Amino acid sequence: MSAEGRSEIKWVYRFQRMSAANVVRLTRLAGLVPWYVPGMFGGKKKLTRLYRRYLEATGQKGNPRVLARESVAVRQLLKCAAPLMTGARDAFVKDLVRVEGEEHIRAALAPGRGAVIASAHVGSGGLPAAWLARQGIRVLTVRRKDLQGQEDTEYGKFALFGCEPMYLEWEEAPVAMLKRGIAALKDNAVISFLADGQFGARGADATMFGKSVTVRTGFVEVARMAKVSVVPAFGLADSSGLRIKFCEPISVATPEDVADFPRRFAAIHEAILRENPACLSWRPMERELFDSRKSD
Q1: Per-residue b/e over 62-88, b at no fewer than 16 CB within 10 Å?
Q2: Which domains does the chain have, with CATH numbers?
Q3: d(Cα 107, Cα 240) in Å, to the nearest integer?
Q4: Which of 18, 128, 135, 269 gives 22 a disulfide partner, CB atoms 3.0 to 4.6 angstroms apart?
């Protein structure tokens, strides 16, 4: 286990021993103290530049330094958000997590054919899946094979947050796994995947903030074959705690619907980024969207 992994596990245990109110207070305090980005030379300058470009791309007004500080304040909570759902007290989760649009995922599951939830690397991509697993719903999450064999270790349990792994290579998903996904959906399970993930070859281009991005569609095709909807879902945070947003289901009943999914998901993803600047993930996609050196 890496030093970063051990540190995150310790933070999960710390948070779980606190009250939800104290977790919120600690998060707010983190936004008031001098900050830096661990392991990132010149991190403050780079992050501030990222938010300056973010404001330019979104046409919004604001102070990039303030946005950068807010991002650092919620970062630790977001990193621990999904694992926090495993083993935390019911009262703690109820006080810390606000759920919006729960009726959308409930309606998608109502016919008994399962559902696919599509998230992204914004905020905590695993939080919606972890919250659903806590409700007793069977959830399968798409993971890289570098976690295989560690499921019963402390880190494995931390990384899977109560969900079943569906392992992927960096290339296209194998047919056997797709069959397993369809079988799980027929059993009224949920499959969770990151639509802006870097692995899985099947995908199509869409536009966000005037730039081309790739949206993965492999499990959207699985949803079409299983005759279920895809529910966009996002795990977010602000100064009042964690928030899960389930959006209205996207119908993928036809091949044309699947082809149109990247455009529709990208529009939702863009709106989430506009409304929740503190939840930028700092991943390559965000840096490509908002921090291009070409405009220097």
Answers
A1: eebeebbbbbbbbbbbbbbbbbbbbeb
A2: 3-295 (3.40.1130)
A3: 28
A4: 18
